[in-house]
Design goal:
alpha+beta, OB fold (Dihydrolipoamide Acetyltransferase, E2P), de novo design (two linked rop proteins), five-stranded mixed beta barrel, three-stranded antiparallel sheet
């Protein structure tokens, strides 16, 4: 049976001389694998460039029960990037977001709210005129809402300690070492309260950005089984310096 759906490309792997296996997060079905045939043939109407990291697509796909790899009947861009491919900062952030999403999402079922958040975040990054240096921090923090471990009590100013194990802000210092306080905790609180609207306004020193990112990655490791180490943060750190 044929279905129309939007999709976000997470991975494209060469399968044969002219075919690729695509890992796509779809609006209608969640995480799915598809085969695209004839991709590298000279007369192919579909170009490989259509399936770059986090490309946004309009798809017509087959969906058959108990089939691991589905087929694509039609594909076209849902949104064409204007700035990301030509902006080293933004393309590095896309690399980070892509790796984070790949390591975080396992569900093969529709989650419209999560899909809309990821889709909208990608478009927002492409259109962002300035201040992209904090974007990856805002994304990794807000993404927790859709993964099920969004920090609690962030609206209480007298709760200064972010307990990474419990996923909440507390009044007193936790008995373990997995927590944040001071500047970094305050920055995260501001992001939780204001979201992307504050991304280009927060003046976060490079050292703090790195510390906050490392802390959030630890937060993910504590709450997501099998969350393996990421390579892209090192790329971000290099580019932003």
């Amino acid at each position: 049976m044929l279905h129309k759906t939007r999709g976000i490309v997470l991975q494209s792997i060469k399968y044969s001389e002219s075919s690729n296996i695509l890992k796509i997060y779809t609006e209608a079905f969640g995480l799915k694998s598809y085969i695209i045939r004839g991709l590298r043939k000279s007369k192919s109407r579909t170009k490989a460039s259509l399936f770059q990291h986090l490309s946004l697509l309009e798809l017509v796909v087959y969906d058959k029960d108990k089939k691991d790899i589905q087929n694509i009947k039609e594909v076209r861009p849902a949104y064409i990037f204007r700035d990301i491919p030509f902006n080293i900062n933004k393309s590095s952030i896309i690399l980070f977001m892509n790796e984070l999403i790949n390591k975080s999402i396992r569900e093969e079922e529709s989650n419209p709210e999560m899909f809309e958040f990821i889709y909208g975040s990608i478009v927002r990054l492409d259109k962002l005129a300035q201040g992209e240096f904090n974007f990856h921090l805002v994304f990794i923090i807000l993404f927790t809402k859709y993964l099920g471990f969004y920090p609690m009590h962030f609206g209480k100013q007298d709760f200064p300690f972010l307990d990474l194990q419990e996923g909440l802000f507390q009044k007193s210092r936790p008995s373990h070492s997995d927590f944040l306080s001071g500047e970094n905790s305050s920055f995260i609180r501001q992001i939780l309260v204001n979201g992307f609207e504050i991304a280009d306004q927060l003046e976060i020193p490079a050292r703090n950005r790195k510390e906050m990112l490392n802390s959030m990655l630890q937060y993910y490791r504590l709450h997501l089984p099998d969350f393996s180490p990421m390579k892209s943060p090192a790329v971000l750190h290099s580019v932003f310096h």
